[in-house]
Amino acid sequence: MKLEIDFLDETNEVSEDVISTIQKILNFAAEKENVESGSEVSVTFVTNERIQEINREYRDKNQPTDVISFALEEMGQGETELHGPDMPRILGDIIISVERAHEQAEEYGHSSLRELGFLAVHGFLHLLGYDHMTEEDETIMFGKQREILDEFGLKR
Fold this sequence. Notes:
single chain; 156 residues
């Protein structure tokens, strides 16, 4: 396993099997993206209510969303990198609304596992610096997501 992943399930609804699959898909994505072994990431499963609070507090959007990522490596002015040769690379946090994942899975006609896997990979790519603010960036990021999910075997 390449990544050190810290899982927290605030909903008490996510099974060990689902967590195990998400751990595997994130490690698969890390391998595809050549992320250093031992890099750290946290994944927290929350309710719609909790993700709405986070969205409001950090993004000034007072509504629930499906996934939010907090990259610890985004450099602000005057900041320096936190990892060195003796320290693990700390990528950041991925927060996923389990309720929203179930709603979207139903909407798109695929399993909740597929949707949770998609959201985890989406959040992970954000931690690595990918974005979808422009059409060009969106094409790159969404292409990577699809490739990772399809090669891993979590197809729609």
